[in-house]
Amino acid sequence: QVQLVESGGGLVQAGGSLRLSCAVSRSIFGANTMGWYRQALGKQRDLVAIITDSFSTNYADSVKGRFTISSDNAKRTVYLQMTSLKPEDTAVYYCYARNPRWGPADYWGQGTQVTVSS
Question: Which residues contact 54 (CB under 8 A, 6 or more apart)?
Fold first, then answer.
């Protein structure tokens, strides 16, 4: 089994910053896709940011210029640095991972709550 554990969520005022971490139980070296999704109360789970093994990144339009995704293969960890947070960023943030060496499945963490107050 592949386990993903998120941390770093919390309550922050608008304009503030948070750094989320996702620890992965398997090696993330090689062909892989890591990312962050979020789900606000009563809404669907949406893509926030993705990073590949080639360090190519993609971001949702709503977070471009404010959020940065990065990964550390040695630490088996993916990060999401969030700045200039807005109340609409409030959601549960989920870590995502996929690696063909693990099999064809997508893996998800349990989620960490981010709440941005106005």
Answer: none
Q: Which residues contact 82 (CB under 8 A, 6 or more apart)?
A: 17, 18, 19, 20, 63, 66, 67, 89, 114
φ and ψ of 101, to 5 deg: -65, -25
Q: What is the pLDDT tens value at each position of the chain, 118 positions in all?
A: 899 999 999 999 999 999 999 999 988 777 789 999 999 999 999 999 999 988 899 999 999 999 999 999 889 999 999 999 999 999 999 999 998 888 899 999 999 999 999 9
